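Example S7 (structure tokens).
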């Protein structure tokens, strides 16, 4: 391995190569429609490489979903960006995320919101994500192992809710825990079929639904996982 001052562009470990990969990562996000400058700044600051472990870690700056522990996936970065953008988070917001996974989405939300609650049905994932949040000094994230389809009644209502696993319909408890004026973004549809990313806005009269784009997520599963 070369460690010259100018770096070696063929050495994937060199800082020049890493900087270039990160630049291409941000460029790919923009070209796929992530244009909100606050979202882009958050995604520049939160290093996806820290949330992908093992053999896939050198693909962390590619725009693709990757396997994580417990047979789950870290979402495709452009989808993370588009969902975050659609959520229109304000600095005073309290946000609920269902589906902590690697913790990447929650870490990005932590840059934009006052407080983030993130839940996953696998204790192993919440424990590993929570350790990473501590290491990174992301003190406004609370990580909880629970079945997120019931939301978090004790912390509700929420200004924003994001679900990163697909249900056939928006879960009733989550709709009930959304504030008036609040926004929820989630994939809906059957797990192996094409799913749609939906934006739900709660108004004084009820709920408005907007279909954003086709997506593919792991399914929302009932109950706690075994790990
Ligand atoms: N947002 C994650 C990716 C999530 S993958 C990231 O940034 O990496 C979807 C996650 O949803 C998985 O970790 C899965 O365990 C979790 N999940 C599925 N059903 C759930 C449920 N009912 N309650 C909580 N989490 C659930």
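Recovered sequence:
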């Amino acid at each position: 391995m070369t460690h010259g001052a100018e770096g070696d562009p063929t050495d994937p470990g060199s800082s020049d190569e890493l900087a270039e990969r990160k630049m291409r990562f941000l460029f790919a996000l923009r070209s796929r429609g992530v244009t909100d400058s606050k979202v882009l700044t958050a995604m520049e600051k939160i290093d996806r490489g820290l949330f992908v472990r093992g053999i896939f870690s050198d693909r962390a700056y590619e725009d693709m979903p990757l396997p994580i522990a417990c047979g789950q996936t870290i979402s495709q970065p452009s989808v993370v960006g588009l969902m975050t953008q659609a959520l229109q988070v304000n600095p005073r917001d309290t946000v609920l995320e269902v589906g902590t996974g690697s913790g990447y989405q929650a870490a990005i939300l932590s840059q934009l919101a006052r407080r983030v609650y993130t839940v996953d049905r696998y204790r192993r994932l919440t424990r590993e994500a929570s350790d990473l949040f501590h290491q990174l000094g992301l003190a406004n994230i609370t990580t909880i192992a629970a079945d997120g389809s019931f939301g978090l009644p004790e912390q509700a209502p929420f200004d924003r809710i994001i679900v990163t696993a697909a249900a056939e319909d928006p879960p009733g408890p989550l709709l009930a825990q959304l504030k008036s004026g609040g926004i929820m973004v989630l994939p809906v549809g059957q797990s192996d079929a094409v799913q749609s990313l939906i934006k739900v806005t709660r108004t004084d009269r009820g709920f408005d639904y907007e279909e954003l784009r086709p997506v593919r997520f792991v399914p929302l599963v009932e109950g706690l996982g075994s790990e």
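Notes on this example. The domain at 12-215 is CATH 3.40.50.150 (Rossmann fold).
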